Amino acid sequence: MGGRRVGGMGVVGGSVALVVGVAQPGCVVGDVRANAAAHAEAVRVAGARVAVFPEMSLTGYVFDAPAVAGDDAVLEPIVVACAETGSLALVGAPVDVEASGQRSIGVLAVDGDGARVVYRKMFLGGAEPGSFTPGSEPAVVEVDGWRLGLAVCKDTGVAEHAARTCALGVDVYVAGVLELPEDAAVPEERARRIATEHGVWVAIASFAGPAGGGYDAAPGGSGIWRPDGTVQVRAGTEPGAVARAELERQGATWSR
User: Fold this and answer.
1) Residue 220 carries which DSSP code?
2) Is 16 exposed, middle or buried (0-12, 13-18, 19+ CB in 10 A)?
3) pTM to 2 decimals?
4) What whole-number distance in Å separates Cα of residue 7 and Cα of residue 144?
5) CA distance linking residue 231 with residue 228, whole number of Å
6) Which domains does the chain have, with CATH numbers?
7) Alpha helix stretches (DSSP H) within the chain
8) Residue 202: CB partners within 8 Å, gap ≥ 6?
9) Taking all residues of the chain, what is their mean pLDDT, rounded to a whole number?
10) Helix, strand, coil fractions of the chain, as percent rounded to 5
11) 73 CB contacts (<8 Å, ≥6 apart)?
12) Strand, helix or coil at 20?
């Protein structure tokens, strides 16, 4: 189905579509400035209205990384890239829990006007509870009339999370994840289940290459799945890859 690009959106069959990119930038573990630059480049490469990044993408999977605040100057390269492209970037990082002295694994929404924390991971895995506090509520970000439900890694494997999030009336279930190579098939299994059970698009950004915390070779494979559970587009295994798709409520056109 053909369409024309309009400022990061598309017009397909007379309806407004949403261009979403899932990115897996290379990570310099613990170097937020280098990673922010890589995020900015990925935003430009994606040329999407929404660019999705993996779990803790700004820091790598290291539990002692400092929290990243919405007004942190380190995010400026991403803010600039979003201003240039008209994009909203959903990036992963440790974030503070207000007035508690604790941290959560979070998602920041970055656009041309700045950044803000929009979600905290609700279901922690492995050793995470020793360093992080879980979020308490699902969250939705609205972009051009599309409602994006947010998730981080283990959240995607908990049926309660998808049910509560999708009950908020979402069009797309969006997640940043990190997997071991032997678990490379897990995000797709979860995406298919969520898509078919709830009738929503699913967009998952997965780390590729070294990510810290014992993840020496994360498998990549970021992708977007249609509401019927079929694959719309997938990235490969290499760091730096971006896959993008133009979503609309009755189908989609897509490109890499």
Assistant:
1) -
2) middle
3) 0.92
4) 11
5) 9
6) 4-249 (3.60.110.10)
7) 32-46, 76-85, 159-166, 186-198
8) 172, 173, 174, 175, 191, 194, 195, 224, 225
9) 92
10) 25, 40, 40
11) none
12) strand
